[in-house]
Each structure stands twice: as C-alpha cells, then as structure tokens.
Amino acid sequence: MKHKNKYDVVVVGGGHAGIEAALSSHKRGVKTLLISMDKKSVGRTSCNPAVGGLAKGQMVKEVDVLGGVMGFFADMSTLQSKTLNKSKGRSVWSPRSQIDKNLYEKIAQKHISDVGLDVLEGEVVSLKVKNNTVCGVVLKDKSLIPCSAAVLTCGTFLNGLIHIGEKQINAGRYGEKRAKGITENLNSFGLLSGRLKTGTPPRVQKNSINWNVGGADYGDKNPSPLSYRTKNFKPKDEPCFSFRTNNKTHGMILDNLSSSAMYSGKDMATGPRYCPSIEDKVYKFSSNPSHLLQLEPEWTKSKQIYVNGFSTSLSESVQLKCLKTVRGLENVKFIRPGYAIEYDFFYPSQLKNSLESKAISGLFLAGQINGTSGYEEASSQGIIAGINSSCYILNEDPLILKRNDAYIGVLIDDLILKDTNEPYRMFTSRAEYRLQLRSSNADQRLLSISRKYCLLDEKTLDQLQYKIEKTNSIVKYLEKNNIDPNKINKSLKALDEKEIKEPTKMSVVLKRPKVSIKNFEIDIKISSNKLTKHMIKETLFEAETIIKYSGYINRQKEEIDKIKIYEDMIIPQEFDYNSILSLSNESREKFINIKPQTVGQAQRINGIRPSDISILLVYLKRPFHVKQK
User: Fold this and answer.
1) Mean pLDDT of 112-125
2) pLDDT > 50? residue 45
3) What is the DSSP letter of 477?
4) Hey, which residues does 144 pair with through a beta bridge?
5) Whole-angstrom distance, CA of residue 124 vs CA of residue 132
6) What gap in Å lies between CA 383 and CA 22, rounded to an integer?
7) Model confidence over 219-277: pLDDT tens digits?
8) What does the pLDDT read at residue 464?
9) Where are the beta strands (DSSP E) in 331-489?
10) Residue 581: Cβ within 10 Å count
11) How far is CA 373 from CA 156, 253, 439, in A?
12) Nearest CA-CA partner of 387 in 378, 395, 376, 398
C-alpha cells in the first residue's frame, strides 16, 4: 500500500539525532516526516540526565549556532549548570547542564508540534531503492512512504539485546521494543554492519538513600546558558551527591564476576573503554581502593535517582548486594537494575563527510547507527545529516565542517576515517586545534555558515553578528591603547603582580596570568538592548581569551594554512588505487575501502604513512589513473 503523502526527506528515529535532522530539514523548507516507533518517546534522554560536558559542551554550542535545539531545550529544563575543566586552560572549559529529563522530553515534543513538523508513529523495516538511490521507506504494515532522501537515526534499537546477568531481553531500550529489518535490508545493498555494546547504571529510590553521608555538589553561582537563544537563564541549583565504593564492594563484584554478562564467557560486542562498567573498573584497576558514584536526580523532585559510575550487567540481585556495601546505600532499593545493551551499527567509513552513504544516494546516517555514544555526538551528526539531506533535495553543495572548524568536524572526520572498534565518544584530546575550538567562540566560527544555509532567524543572526563585532572591537582597543601605571598598579599589587613603571599596552598587561579585563578601569559600551547579560559576559571573556592566547592561536593558524593545500586537494571518486604498484597491499586496501575524498582525509587514515601520501600525490597529477567504465 502506497502512503498518500510523498515527502522530500523521511527521518527514522525520534532521538536526539532524529530531532535535529528533522527540524533542520523542515526549517529549510523541505517537506519532512519524522517517524518514531513511539510518539511519546520522541526526545527521550534515555541514559544520563545531563547535556554537555567535556568536549560535549563545545558541540552543543556548535549545534546551537547551526540552528539546533539541544542547548535551548536543555536550558529550559536545567536543574544545575556548571562549567567543567576550569582548573585547566580556557580552551577546554566545557559547559554542562543537569536536566529534568521529563521536562526536556515535553519541551521537545511541544516544539515539534508548534513548528508543524509531521510525525508518524510506525516502524520502518526497509528502504525502497532504485538505481542505487533512495525512493521510499517501507513500514512494518507493508505501506510505502515515497521520499527522495532518508536519514536513519535508529540509536540502539537495531536488533537491540539487553543483558542483565544471564537474563537477555530483546529491546531497543528498557521497556521498549527493538527494531528489526533495517540492518538486514541495508546488508542486502552491500552495507557492512557490526555489533557494539553500551551500558547504563541502576535507578534507585530516593527515600532509600542516607543523603547525609554523601557529599553535595552544586553548580556555578552565575551560570551561563548553553543556547544563545535563551534570554533569561535562572536555573535551579539542585545538588548531586558523591558516594564511594570500598574494598567490600570490590570483593563482592570480583566474587560474582561470572554473573556479569560481560564476564560470563558470552561472545559479546565491544563496549566503550572511556565509560567502563563497574566490573571493568574493579577488575582492571584493582589497585584503586574506591570508585566515585555520583547520585543524580532525573527530574524535579525526582524520586528516581541515577547512579552515575555504576554501569553494569551483573545480575540484579548481585547489583543490589554490591550497592548495599556502599556507605549511605545500606538500605538502597531498586526502581530498575542496570544493564548492558548490544545493537547493530554500520561502519561509518561507508559514508561521505556529508554523512551520505557512498553506495546509496539520498541515504544519510546519524547517531549511534554510526558507532557513536552520547546525546551530543548524536545531536551533532543529526544537524549535519538534516542540513545535508535538505541540500541534497535543493541541489545545493553540502555543508562540510573541517577539523579546524568545529568539534563536529573532528567527530565526522574521525568516524569516516578511523577504525570503529568501540563506541566513539568525543574528548578535547581528539581535537588537535582545540585552542581554536572554544565553547565561547562557536558563534565566531560558525555564524557565516548559519547565515548561508538560513539556519537561524534574522534577529538571532544580527544579535550574534553584533556580539562578534563587539568582541573584535574590544580586542583592537586593548591592543591599541596604553594603560597608565596610576590606573592599574593598585590592582597589580593586589594580585601580587609586578607593577608597571610607564604607560603599557593593555593587551601586554592582560597577558599576565592573574590579570583580568575587569582590572582595567575602562568604559566598554555594549548595548544591553542587543545582548543579554550572559552574552555580554561571554563577549568580555572571549575578548580576554583572544588576547591571552594570541601567540598560541596565531601559531596554530599558521599551521592550518600550511596544510590547507593538501586538505582541500580532491581525489576523484573513480581513482584507481590498484594502478599504484608502489603502494603496499595494506595501504592500497585501506584507500580502496575508505575511499578518501581529499588528500587531507587520506593522510589521517590509520596506518597510512607519509611515503604513501607522497606516492599518491605523484599519481594524482596523472589523469589516466582513473578507473575506466
């Protein structure tokens, strides 16, 4: 049966990737349909109750400048806001918001309704493909929805299998049915899939915890929002509480390792090293006498508490016994046990850097289906897949973010070029240009792109343009003007900094570690009618950061300029690597499998040597090294 409506773009999955993809495509005037197996679950934050964090906060800010909604929804549902990594350099400071999961979900669903995005409850089981091009999606009831492009954002639902000890449950999330059919369908078109695993900790009853034992952790006193569109940010400051495991906990875990699905001898998929289960922590780091557990509320006045740091697939009874050995949790009661979940993913090396399939035109993949883990990684891919699916329909050049443009560029570049051996999570250490990829300058890096693709409303575009101009004017003012000793020495003395003896450029004084822009008694006029107080604070902070980091930033810009020629050098799609006899078999195989689109990408493939690139450059100058059709 053919569906009565034809859509330009159909987005499959209503998680963070799906929402960003569908809304960005819809916003650009492309007829878009979002399909979810359960309308009530659209926007669900299924694991930890937080948005942002190390490197992830930077991505949320980038998504926001590209017109995405994650930061805006998080701001409206924030329980606690905090900037992480403040003991380190500013380039890696990362905003994070503890959120009300229920409220976030309601806000997301209301927004989707308010903007008029079509949503259909149903299960997609296959694609209709003709001449290697998407032309529709097929539902479980065998109805066909014609479309010209499809974005798959299926999360952990593809053949999802939950493990709790020896118990196995076919599910995409706890209490939600899994999706079957899409993996098998894409495999039939030649796309290669694999299995990955991730986990989640138990949820426990609030009134079963002795809160007096835990250490209360609060947010920042004057927090800043994640979204530039948030006007009045006055969030709650609900505490999280720290507890610690002990030798008794560890002994019980080691004695019961065989009850863990991961240690029972079962042939399981690979899980994330960076977010290990409590079993892995205890077994692999036996010298550590205790591990931190952060108990977090999942919504306002929540009676359900998330036990961060206790991800596990131990049997339910063992999980409970282990938690009861922790001081303060002696009488703890479960609402839901922790579990591990296995699911299908597709190797992202089969995608272009636009997130479109190399094999099937009009097919885009985003989120955990590409082997990633985390709300923010999913949201980042979703916004790019949504923009580029609309570009595909509108016959426009796709949006391609490079590694020096954004953390999103690093994410996608890593996915399509690196081996996917475990779920991918973003870290600041993955970005070689992180000095330039600050959370406070996402607008400077991406505003022109947002304007080009019409991703933000005119008022927000003008507001951010004004903010950027004020930032630059403040930097120029500080670089141009001197400060008199009489106006700064009192502050320098109070900071235990050496006093100046003659008028000195403000920028020179500001480069001192303890000196802040606030120490200069200068009248910096920023219109409060154009910028919120949070944006004014960020404008001053960013101007100060540019001055303090100027030497490092300039050196990094020079480095980027040097490699740009190779980064942008195109490799023809039909380039014949088999004709390069001087390449090793291993290197030739990597080039053929990944099909890098530029020399810059080729350089970053795991195992590719500088000599391979030198050989490739020689052959690229010979046009006859293209496969003959």
Assistant:
1) 97
2) yes
3) H
4) 2, 138
5) 19
6) 8
7) 999 999 999 999 999 999 999 999 999 999 999 999 998 888 766 556 666 666 657 88
8) 97
9) 334-336, 339-346, 363-365, 482-483
10) 7
11) 10, 26, 21
12) 398
Q: Tell me the C-alpha distance between 58 and 468, whole Å.
A: 17
Fold held by 7-197+343-452: FAD/NAD(P)-binding domain (3.50.50)
Distance CA(514)–CA(507), nearest Å, equals 13
Instruction: Check the CA dihedral 382-383-389-392 and report its sign.
Output: negative
CB neighbours of 482 closer than 8 A, spacing ≥ 6? Answer: 503, 504, 505, 506
- Angle made by CA atoms 236, 241, 244, in degrees to the nearest 5: 165
Assign 561 a pLDDT band (cuts: 50, 70, 90).
confident
Q: Which tokens belong to 345?
A: 């993913």
Is the Cβ–Cβ distance between 419 and 606 less than 8 Å? yes
Token code pair at residue 180: 């079957």
- The 10s digit of each residue's pLDDT in 50-88 is 999 999 999 999 999 999 999 999 999 999 999 999 989
453: which residues sit within 8 A by CB, 6+ positions away? 28, 387, 391, 399
> From CA 216, how far away is CA 19, in angstroms rounded?
34
- Rounded to the nearest 10°, the torsion over CA 19, 21, 22, 23 is 80
Read off the pLDDT of each residue in 17-38 and give the average, rounded to a whole number. 98
Four-residue CA torsion sign, 412, 417, 422, 428? negative
CATH number, domain 203-341, options 3.90.550.10, 3.50.50.60, 2.40.30.260, 2.60.120.620: 2.40.30.260
Return d(Cα 353, Cα 408) in angstroms, integer.
Answer: 11
Q: What is the pLDDT of residues 575-600, one digit of tens each?
A: 889 888 888 888 888 898 888 999 88
- As a three-state string, the secondary structure of 190-225 is CCCEEEEEEEECCEEEHHHCCCCCCEEECCCCCCCC
Name the burial class of residue 170, with classes exposed (0-12), middle (13-18) and buried (19+) by CB atoms within 10 angstroms of its CB.
Answer: exposed
Q: Which two structure tokens, joined as six digits, stand for 305?
A: 């508490």
Structure tokens at 193: 């899939």
The domain 458-559 is placed in CATH, from the list 3.10.20.310, 3.50.50.60, 1.10.10.1800, 3.30.250.10, at 1.10.10.1800
Contact (CB, 8 A) for 44 and 294: no
Quick one: which H or E segment has residue 411? helix 407-417
Strand partners, 336: 203
- Report the C-alpha gap between 449 and 445 in whole angstroms: 8
SS3 at position 277: coil
Residues 385 and 293: their CA atoms lie apart, in Å, by: 36
Cα–Cα distances in angstroms (integers) from residue 304 to residues 209, 332, 447, in the given order = 11, 12, 40
Instruction: Tell me the two tokens of residue 543.
Output: 């101007």
> Which token pair is 501?
């003896």
At how many degrees (to 10) do helices 533-567 and 458-480 cross? 80
Domain boundaries, the chain: 7-197+343-452, 203-341, 458-559, 577-620
Q: Distance between terminal CA atoms of the chain? A: 38
Segment holding 372, helix H or strand E: none
Q: Which CATH superfamily is domain 577-620 in?
A: GidA associated domain, C-terminal subdomain (1.10.150.570)
Compute the distance between CA of residue 495 and CA of residue 80 in angstroms, rounded to an integer: 31
The angle at the Cα of 106, spanning 232 to 57, to the nearest 5 degrees, equals 55
Backbone angles phi, psi at 203, to 5 degrees: -110, 135
